[in-house]
Amino acid sequence: MAKPIDLSVDFCGFKLINPFMLSSSPVSNSAEMVERAFEAGWAGVAYKTIVSDRLPIIHPSPRMNGYFGSGKQLVGVQNVEQTSDRGLKANLLDIMYLKKHWPDRLVMSSIMGFSNQEWADLSKASEDAGADMLEVNVSCPHMTVEGSGAKVGQVQDLVQKFTETCRNSCSLPIVAKMTPNITDITVPAVYAKKGGADGIAAINSVAGLSGVDIDNCVPNPNVFGKGAASGFTGPAIKPIGLRYVAELAQCRELGLPISGIGGIETWVDALEYLLLGSTTIQVTTGIIHYGQQIVGSMIEGLSDYMALKGISRVKDLVGKALPNLHETHDFDLKRQGIAQYDLDRCIGCGQCYTVCKDAGGWALDWDAQNRRPVLDEKKCLSCMVCSFACPVEGLITFKEMPSTYRRADTVTLGEGLEKQLKAKC
Amino acid sequence: MKKSNPLTDMSKGWDLAEAIAEADRCLLCHDAPCSTGCPGGTDPGQFISKLKFRNVTGAIRTIKQNNILGGACGVLCPTAQLCERECSAVGLPGGPIQIGQIQRALVEHAWAIGFNPLEKGARRKEKIAIVGSGPAGLSCAAELAQAGFRVTVFEAKAKAGGVLRYGVPAYRFAPKFLDRELKDLDALGVVFKCSTPIQGKGAAEKLLKKGFAAVFLAPGLWEPIRLKGSTPSLPGLFTATEFLCALRDGKQSQLARSVKGKRVAVIGGGSVAVDSAESAFKLGASDVYVIYRRSYTQMPAEDDEKQDLLQAGIHFLLLNQPVGYRTGARGRLRAVQLVRTELGDKDASGRRRPIEVPDSQWELPVDVVIEAIGTKPVVGAEEGYPSVKRTKGGLITANPKTGATSVKKIYAGGDIVRGPALIIEAVKDGKTAAKAILKQLKK
């Protein structure tokens, strides 16, 4: 009998039924929306960032621009989404509603103050409304209110100060949400900890420009003739998110649980975040593209993976890849390998040949008669670009060579010009 | 919305987004094999790669510079047997890239955005005469016009296009589409003289004396081959040429009257037989029989065409050789007389030869018969070019590398040289002759 799979996780003292949460964004804009997500299986929500009613929040129009890969595949979204533009009261009532009807789900109130006092007021109001946790949003890269969002997150003293204010205003666990638009993400995270944060959420969106309209020369999204760099999200930023999460998880001085965010669409994406140190994960762009129902496959996929691997608790996955994460100077350079070809499955497209010539080690020749690549093992750099181009999954794989293997030098065309060389070699 | 007419409305092509999505599947093969699969030198490896990298106008240029009839070929080419058969993705999920669809979409897109990559060449004084406005003639005309020559196309029928207009049903290839593609030739300054047959004693050869520097003969094959012993005119008996032309000439209602609710037999196994059978079915025939003397796999029609017919409910009467017709009162057609056949050894065409089974004659009661067993040169056509060397069957003998005939400055191509062939092969002939003419006039 297989061990029962338990997807539940403990995050800052709250037990979630699984690690999958909605992030603070358009997908968590109201109780109506969040309730539907809870029904679909999401374990928690970082509710859309609430603000005081002192300054009106008006959204630019249009709000988003899709960034597409091959075909209509959305690989990223650039947005100029602001904090909630609903009244504070409406949001607090919605948080109350969610906690009343969904006591087992994590409702994290994401807040953003435009003054020290507002951080205090919003913390208190969130606690009063029944929120389980606070998410301190010091990371939105495109606020239309000056001096807020990521502008705060990039100044460590302010991160500490506002977190401290929240800490002193309520008894809720506090998660600080970090901006990736900074050189070392652990610095503000440590300051947040000093201010009293219990956990870290990362990453918020990456400031980017998703494109320019080549007819009118306005960057997208085109807000009536004006474009601006703003938050870019989705699968394209996943490598950045994974890196920052791993750095936060490896930071000894920090030692806080992490909620991982950035380009998650499948259980595999989520699992990668877990393996690099996230306890929970949060999703927006995946839902923008495919809807809330993607959580079903996340739950099922992760459960089956755990069953197949004989792992019964998510806890045992968190950070499991970190011992294998090193600096590049730690690599064992004595061991070398090459690309190996399973030519029985080759369909003869010859893309491997093209890229090996144009971007690789000139290790391939082309048998035009049979339309097959011919590998010179001595020249293969093991760059593996051929395997990226190959349309047949798994045809080209990496193979370690025996220690006697020696790679041939790259051909030098300028041998005869040696005398003209001014530098001494 | 206008109700679609199954007899006249061609299926819609892809829009640019659909074409790009398909191009995105392209593997960008080294030494692209698709580009070796076209007799007309089409280079899908090039234009699909361009499209994949969003060089839409460049992709259009690649198509149209090679083939003035890029749109027509995108619609009508048996791509599954040509370029698409060579595609490396044949064995992958999703199958080969649908090259014909992409090509058609790009050409239609060019028309939609008003992009024409072709230009008239620097004006030259020489005039060239083209006889026949089918694919061979049009392709030769476009090539020479781009080289700067003054090109005149003489067409016997009322409108230009040849088989593209009079040889395929409108639902397969819309006259409007053809008209749009012909505009690309107008833009090159090609002059069309329709209803102007070049016939009578030495008429084609005389063109040289009338100031034309070269003549390209591409009149096609318009004389139907008849069933042995067939009566030329019998109420209810059509040749496929008559039948399909009538459909094109707006005589649909007249045809519908003679076909609707009737039993129709189509004799033949090629694409024209398929078109005739399908058209008869669409006109409301109660039963349509395709009668073919060999078996299913020997039929020259394309696989998907044949399957469409079977799906639609058209009957295939294979291994039967029609030998005559029985008529009833007032000479009306009553039945087609058939002899059963069996397959023997391979003949010159590489297909197994049909052998009549002794004493197996029987009758299939029908009201209408359409003979679709091939075409040959129009009777008397050779009078226009008496000095040009011809085969026994009346086809013109031309050098396949140059299109040159036995008479200097007279070239020929298309079906009049090859016998029934593909549109793209005719396109190739036009280009080949154009190149030779260019060379001739450089001297």
Which descriptors apply to this entry?
heterodimer; A: TIM Barrel; 8-stranded parallel barrel; 4-stranded antiparallel β-sheet; 12 helices; globular; B: 443 residues; Fumarate Reductase Iron-sulfur Protein, Chain B, domain 2; FAD/NAD(P)-binding domain; 5-stranded parallel β-sheet; 16 helices; 34% helix
Percent helix among the residues of chain A? 25-40%
Tally of structural domains of chain A: 2
Which CATH class of the largest domain in chain A applies here?
Answer: Alpha Beta
Radius of gyration of chain B, in Å, reads 23 Å
Molecular shape of chain B: globular
- How many structural domains can be distinguished in the coordinates of chain B? 3
CATH superfamily of the largest domain in chain A: Aldolase class I
What does this structure look like?
The complex is a heterodimer of chains A (425) and B (443). With 425 residues, chain A is of the alpha/beta class. Chain A folds into two domains: 9-324, Aldolase class I (TIM Barrel, Alpha-Beta Barrel); 329-400, Alpha-Beta Plaits (2-Layer Sandwich). Helix content of chain A is 29%, strand content 20%. Chain A contains twelve helices and 20 strands. Chain A has an eight-stranded parallel β-barrel with strand order 3-4-7-8-9-10-15-16, surrounded by eight helices. In chain A, a hairpin with a 2-residue loop joins strand 1 (9-11) and strand 2. Chain A is globular. The mean pLDDT of chain A is 95. Chain B has 443 residues and is of the alpha/beta class. Chain B has three domains: 16-113, Alpha-helical ferredoxin (Fumarate Reductase Iron-sulfur Protein, Chain B, domain 2), CATH 1.10.1060; 127-222 and 377-442, FAD/NAD(P)-binding domain (3-Layer(bba) Sandwich); 224-374, 3-Layer(bba) Sandwich (FAD/NAD(P)-binding domain). Chain B has helices at 16-23, 44-52, 56-66, 70-76, 83-86, 99-113, 135-146, 163-166, 175-186, 203-209, 240-248, 252-259, 271-282, 303-312, 415-418, 423-442, and strands at 127-131, 150-154, 191-193, 212-217, 223-224, 237-239, 263-267, 287-291, 315-317, 320-327, 333-346, 352-356, 362-365, 368-371, 375-376, 410-412. Chain B has a five-stranded parallel sheet with strand order 3-2-1-4-16, with helices on both faces. Chain B has a five-stranded parallel sheet with strand order 6-14-7-8-9. In chain B, a hairpin with a 5-residue loop joins strand 11 (333-346) and strand 12 (352-356). Classes of the chains: A alpha/beta (425), B alpha/beta (443). The interface between A and B is medium-sized, with 15 and 15 residues.
